[in-house]
UniProtKB/TrEMBL annotation, chain A:
GO cellular component, one term: endoplasmic reticulum
InterPro entries: NO_sig/Golgi_transp_ligand-bd (IPR024096), TRAPP_component (IPR007194), TRAPPC6/Trs33 (IPR037992)
Name listed for the protein in its UniProt record: Trafficking protein particle complex subunit 6A
Keywords assigned: Endoplasmic reticulum, ER-Golgi transport, Golgi apparatus, Phosphoprotein, Transport
Annotated organism of origin: Sciurus vulgaris (Eurasian red squirrel)
Superkingdom of this protein's organism: Eukaryota
Pfam families per the UniProt record, alphabetical: TRAPP (PF04051)
Residues passing through the membrane, by range: none
UniProtKB/TrEMBL annotation, chain B:
Single Gene Ontology BP annotation: Golgi vesicle transport
Source species of the chain: Sciurus vulgaris
InterPro entries in UniProt: Bet3, NO_sig/Golgi_transp_ligand-bd, TRAPP_component
Family membership noted in the UniProt record: Belongs to the TRAPP small subunits family. BET3 subfamily.
Encoding gene (name): TRAPPC3
GO cellular component, one term: Golgi apparatus
Chief location category: endoplasmic reticulum
Protein name stated in the entry: Trafficking protein particle complex subunit
Signal peptide: none
Cell location: Endoplasmic reticulum; Golgi apparatus, cis-Golgi network
Record's function text: May play a role in vesicular transport from endoplasmic reticulum to Golgi.
Subunit and partners: Homodimer. Component of the multisubunit transport protein particle (TRAPP) complex, which includes at least TRAPPC2, TRAPPC2L, TRAPPC3, TRAPPC3L, TRAPPC4, TRAPPC5, TRAPPC8, TRAPPC9, TRAPPC10, TRAPPC11 and TRAPPC12. Heterodimer with TRAPPC6A. The heterodimer TRAPPC3-TRAPPC6A interacts with TRAPPC2L. Heterodimer with TRAPPC6b. The heterodimer TRAPPC6B-TRAPPC3 interacts with TRAPPC1 likely providing a core for TRAPP complex formation.
Length: 175, 188
């Protein structure tokens, strides 16, 4: 199973529309299926290896990073790429733009979504706060994967102070 | 950056690519999880089979509420009507395709959905060592779960699959029985 396998002709972009709720339900089932402590904590240390959900998100992000920017002029700077994530990627995945983007101009970015769609149905406030990280891992991987395709190594983490708002912190790794 | 699409209760449409890619990544991950051990590898397709049906079933159980709330479809009076709603309303709404309905059994309790372009398999090819994998099996679980919530016990299974070289993808639907109202949910 290879994304982008050459044997299948790619459908014209936007030709076929699926309903967003389908992705939402599939995501919920993925969380239920894959959210476990790391299956292989022995290698690489338990803290450093990304969770399974993150790696699934990473793979999807990689593919989206390839397919989405086709109509967009080449990125010149790091900030352009982050803007792409906040606008185009977020719209493609969640049908809305990111609400805020901040940076310290040293490779650290904070992407803020005030009503993150995967958290919206759960609660408004502190209820289920402990469950929230499960529903962010896939998206962290997604951002990291898209950045990877666009040429940036990064560490992406997410935090939630109160549902359904959340922040994604992106740290670009300088080589 | 603060513009926010607020489309109220209107359904949110997205390119089916995201769903397709996510599903593909999930299948790939599960294949990888079970790949470690040679013996387990032989069981892979069976494991995936038993994994996806309940997952799809869970999705179906929830999807039916979304569907009924948005589609204004009432109770179906027979299985033919059900087939029409599934193909022309539900598949259209969620996957953007309209399968054709064929091969009715004489008794009217079985039919086939022919999917000419299954969005789940865009970008997919089955490697040789997974040639028996029923890749889109999630759909069967979704159909079964959704119909069970409207008191219909059905069997859904893939009998043809373009991923395996068949000309079309065919899901065979079989009506088993009507679930009586007074049974607790989930009892069979």
């Amino acid at each position: 199973m290879r994304a982008g396998g050459a044997r299948w002709s790619l459908p014209a972009r936007g030709s076929r529309m699926a309903d967003a709720v389908l992705f939402e339900f599939l995501h919920t089932e993925m969380v239920a299926e894959l959210w476990t402590p790391d299956p292989d904590p022995g290698s690489g240390g338990p803290e450093m290896s990304p969770s399974v959900l993150e790696s699934v998100g990473f793979r999807v992000g990689q593919a989206l990073g390839e397919r989405l920017p086709r109509d967009i002029p080449a990125f010149r700077e790091e900030l352009d790429v982050l803007k792409f994530l906040c606008k185009d990627l977020w719209v493609a995945v969640f049908q809305k733009q990111m609400d805020g983007l901040r940076t310290n101009h040293q490779g650290t970015y904070v992407l803020q979504d005030n009503s993150f769609p995967l958290l919206v149905p759960m609660a408004s406030g502190l209820q289920y706060l402990e469950e929230a990280p499960k529903f962010l891992a896939f998206t962290c991987g997604l951002l990291c994967g898209a950045l990877h395709t666009l040429g940036f190594q990064s560490l992406v983490t997410a935090s939630v102070a109160a549902l359904p708002a959340c922040k994604f912190q992106v740290v670009i790794q300088k080589s | 950056m603060s513009r926010q699409a607020n489309r109220g209760t209107e359904s949110k449409k997205m390119s089916s690519e995201l769903f397709t890619l996510t599903y593909g990544a999930l299948v790939t991950q599960l294949c990888k999880d079970y790949e470690n051990d040679e013996d387990v590898n032989k069981q892979l397709d069976k494991i995936l089979f038993s994994n996806f049906l309940p997952r799809g079933y869970n999705i179906g159980v929830r999807l039916i509420e979304d569907f009924l709330a948005r589609s204004n479809v009432g109770r179906c009076h027979d299985f033919r009507e059900t087939a029409d709603v599934i193909a022309k309303v539900a598949f259209k709404m969620y996957l953007g395709i309209t399968p054709s309905i064929t091969n009715w059994s004489p008794a009217g309790d079985e039919f086939s959905l022919i999917l000419e372009n299954n969005p789940l398999v865009d970008f997919v090819e089955l490697p040789d060592n997974h040639s028996s994998l029923i890749y889109s099996n999630l759909l069967c679980g979704v159909l079964r779960g959704a119909l069970e919530m409207v008191q219909m016990a059905v069997e859904a299974k893939f009998v043809q699959d373009t991923l395996k070289g068949d000309g079309v993808t065919e899901i065979r639907m079989r009506f088993i029985r009507r679930i009586e109202d007074n049974l607790p949910a989930g009892e069979e």
